[in-house]
């Protein structure tokens, strides 16, 4: 499509999204409605316009957990999953990997986790003609290594066609990657693919330690790798994929503007980057807005985004049959 043909409808481009937190994708209106229905007081979570309210990353994590506290049952998670998938479909997303946290789904109890998972998977199956959803069970770093072990056991016990990965989110300033190695080993032995947040609040050394100690195939964010030229070379040579979330990084103050964001420099250096929203309503973003902003700032065209989506589906944690089906849908929407 050339510019002469009129404005590009970025939402219409078929997309693959790899870095997405299910609770973080909850529309504030849904969380507010559920809080009212259940008579749960979550004052402080929203500003006067009904948006999520936080000043910095620690506060973001607190607000995230407070908002999530209204989601109490498998039925609540089914409702959330349906709303989130409908929103993703509106943005052209055809394949989505979402982070799921047994911490919030039954307090890491395996049989409770199975019930939550079944509820989410039923919705995903129901919508499978329009969007393919896969789950990455994710421990929460600031909850500590012992809880992360229990989370990894939930992941290992439910590994399969739907749960395809294990990961780690949360506060990267807490602990070192090796503190969480047991869970990553356990998940790998269960056949799960691995990713971890690193290089968002941690520096290039944190990214390198995460790769070396946890043996992940992808890094969540990873953008601060740009501060280590040798690491950038290593990432490019190894093919490790970065799940980059530009609007999230700007909203949380990692970079002052999108033009200061290193995604284009990383890509130009040969690093395999992909584009995701992380927690879209928290950052006033969605996949269409991400593409529009990247195009405006870096001059990226639909051809660039097609290449980025090819990288993303190659790096997807699904099986090869699913990967090939999604690759076909990307070619011929
Ligand atoms: N959990 C949800 N969003 C996150 C982020 N951007 N970084 C770390 N943990 C998160
Ligand atoms: Zn994230």
Structure description:
The chain is of the alpha/beta class. Helices cover 45% and strands 14% of the residues. The model has no long low-confidence stretch (mean pLDDT 97). The longest helix is centred in the first third of the chain and has 17 residues, at 74-90. The protein has 13 helices and eight strands. The chain has an eight-stranded parallel beta sheet with strand order 1-2-3-4-5-6-7-8, sandwiched between helices. The protein has one domain: TIM Barrel (Alpha-Beta Barrel), CATH 3.20.20. The two termini are 14 Å apart. 47% of the residues are buried. The structure holds adenine (ADE) and zinc ion. Adenine binds next to loops.
Key phrases:
binds adenine, 333 residues, alpha/beta, binds zinc ion, 8-stranded parallel beta sheet
Bound molecules: adenine, zinc ion
Question: Main sheet?
Answer: 8 strands, parallel
Helix content: 40-55%
Helix and strand composition category: alpha/beta
Unreliable runs, pLDDT <50, ≥5 residues?
none
Our count of domains comes out at: 1
CATH topology grouping: TIM Barrel
First-to-last CA distance: 14 Å
What is the helix/strand order?
EHHHEHEHEHEHEHEHHEHHH
- Name given to the CATH architecture: Alpha-Beta Barrel
* The CATH top-level class label: Alpha Beta
Could you say which overall geometry the principal axes of the C-alpha atoms support?
A: globular
- The spatial strand order of the largest sheet comes to 1-2-3-4-5-6-7-8
